[in-house]
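Treating backbone geometry as a discrete language has practical consequences that deserve illustration. The amino acid sequence and the backbone structure tokens for this protein are reproduced below.
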Amino acid sequence: MISPKDSNVKSAMKYHRDKALTSLELFAGAGGLALGVHAAGFQLVGLVEQDKFAVETLRHNSQEILGLNPDLVLHCDARKVDYKQFVSVDLLSAGPPCQPFSTAGRSVGKDDPRNMFPVFVDAVALLMPKAILVENVKGLLREKFRDYFNYILKCIEFPLYKIREGEDWLNHYQRLQKIKKNEILTCEQYNVAFQVVDTADFGIPQRRERVVITAFRRDLGIEAFTLKETHSKEALLIDQWITRTYWKRHHVSPHDYLGPKDKKILNQLQNKSPLININERLPWRTVRDVVSNLPEPVDRGCQENFLNHVQHPGARTYKCHIGSFYDYPAKALKAGTNGTPGGENIVRMPPDDAVRYFTTRESARLHTFPDKWRFYGTWGACIRQLGNAVPVDMATLFAKEIYQRLINVE
């Protein structure tokens, strides 16, 4: 079993349980979800991660930025953690490996050995935290996985009613569906909700579609929730091509990147009046919005002049992978499955659409990581960490809502 290294760490954990709302995270990756949870006001008491480069990233940043002893970044398989040491935790968060359900992976789903949802549900059953926050790929909602996704939701709703020895998941699902809420204790069940988000609709400069699951232990009397979008494509098109405020703000000439679908939307917008009533949301944030004030990246092998801002050579486009336009939100950054992740992890630079890879720092800004968060490992290892990461600002929005709801019942 994996445990903190010394008694001082254990004493610090007890102090934080007594003084603040606490959070434990499984499959912590590069730390995007952890940063958001921390920004929301939770005191982190542990991060569990198996990838050695992600662990190095977490440990080197944890003390200064997260207020977490590096010894509490547990480098291990989540199945080998002694969860009893975290029994008083308020929030259990997780970003289980997405590859089993991703359209970019083998799509083996529940039978993929990387499917860690059962491990997460087991942790819920052991800890019975006040709240739960989970992020994963939209692929979970594909027809072939939809029954299993509903099964996951039921497992979270009734975590103490575990799968029996020799029982398959379908029979377990049928048994869970027969449970009547009023026949069991409210402290043994959760109010559960899920939401499909495009992170660009929440101010993240990246088109990243994900499923977010929230849950609260039912005895607290708190309903699970969904968040309202704050940004939109229509508002960006108005900002760029009708008021042209976008180009003036950046002191550049307009660069026409629009495809047929966006041109059709723009034409519809131009024929509506008054514009102020069309959309009350803010414009989507673009690649230019978040990376244009960075210095030019240095070539690989040269001394970096900005943290993690080194240019990796060899970028190219290929069929169905044309990269991200500079004046639009980036496409979802990918972790890659075979060697260096490429294709969608490139940017098309105006005015001639020359392509190059995003640097690690640019990728981090597209995930809204703070500039002082240092990533460790090779360029490919860093990009894989980011391709699997939860955008920090997205995590913060959900974690803040959870925090406020818990505070209101304290």
In short: Residues 392-407 form the longest helix (16 residues).
